[in-house]
Amino acid sequence: MRLTGPRSAGESSIVVNESGSRGWTLAAVAASLMLVFALDRVSGLAPVQHLYYIPIILASVRFGYPGSTTAAIAILLYHLANPRVVTFQYTEGDVLQIALFVGIGITAARLATDRRRLHRLAVTDDLTGLHNLRSFEAQLRTLLRRAIVCQLPLALLVLDLDRLKSLNDTHGHLAGAEAVRTIGDLIAGRLQAGGVACRYGGDEFVIALPECDAQQARSFADQLRTDVNACAPVLAGVPFPSGTLSISIGIASAASHAMPATAPNRGDPAHDDAAGEALFRAADAALYAAKAGGRNRIAVAQPAHATDGAPRA
């Protein structure tokens, strides 16, 4: 789905996720430590001892600061492999080697932690902590491809906060921003594993629910609408009663909404973008129908083959 502007040539639209099993990483670190220890015990050569850096870096990058404690294990094994070091007969090279174990572990952990923090900043919305739009687009493309290939339902919900302008005019923009944040928190709390949500405008949100048909999506939307209406928010330091906030929601389902056949290959990103845009337009039209019906309502887009294109509330 391409709701954002054109991307620069060097900018990737793919969200990079941390991969690999923690168990496999631990096994690899342990095996590497023992292998280097065995070689160090036989040879006692500095080039071999430098190989301790490999498990230290691997553990630090994968687990952050807790992983940097691998340096302590490497130091212990280094002592056991070199009897003269056990008796604390350190040479200048031994001291340097031990210092490098610690320094490399801490540095690698720091770089990995900073990378994860920057990645989170790059893919999340500052106000709500949900995905930002570019990250959501990449996630939705993956969900759509899976839904099409595996013939699974996928629902898209588009919603916004009712009467935000009135709230801003009456109580100030800080109250309005905190109202939007409150909606984001409620969405995050209601979202189940596999679901993806983002804020794509001032008070507008979009939620993708994989393996969820229109009926299940409507149930989810009704629960979320009830949560919002029932909450008693504190906005700009002022407590407000329940019923202060409400949302309108439009729903479209990939199971009932025709996907455009604009690309010969369904795995083609152009087809995935067109499918996401068609689904979004259907959900967005349903949202407008919900707002036109009086707000604090839910509307579901009719299947694409229906003769009457009007969403039903």
Textual characterization of the structure:
The chain is α+β, with helices and mostly antiparallel strands and 313 residues long. The chain has 2 domains: 22-123; 133-300, Alpha-Beta Plaits. The protein contains 11 helices and 7 strands. It has helices spanning 22-43, 46-49, 53-63, 70-81, 83-86, 92-123, 133-150, 164-171, 173-190, 214-230, 269-292; strands at 154-161, 196-199, 204-210, 234-235, 238-239, 247-253, 298-300. Strands 2-3-1-6-7 form a 5-stranded mixed sheet, with helices on both faces. A two-stranded antiparallel ribbon has the order 4-5. Helix 11 links the parallel strand 6 and strand 7 (298-300). Helix 9 (173-190) crosses helix 10. The longest helix has 32 residues, at 92-123. The radius of gyration is 27 Å and the shape is elongated. Residues 2-20 and 260-264 have low confidence and may be disordered.
Number of helices: 11
In which order are the strands of the major sheet placed? 2-3-1-6-7
- Could you tell me the number of beta strands? 7
**Strand and helix order:** HHHHHHHEHHEEHEEEHE
* Biggest sheet statistics: 5 strands, mixed
CATH topology annotation of the largest domain: Alpha-Beta Plaits
Index terms:
single chain; 313 residues; alpha+beta; Alpha-Beta Plaits; 2 domains; five-stranded mixed beta sheet; 54% helix; elongated; disordered N terminus
Précis, in short:
This protein has eleven helices and seven strands. It is an alpha+beta fold.
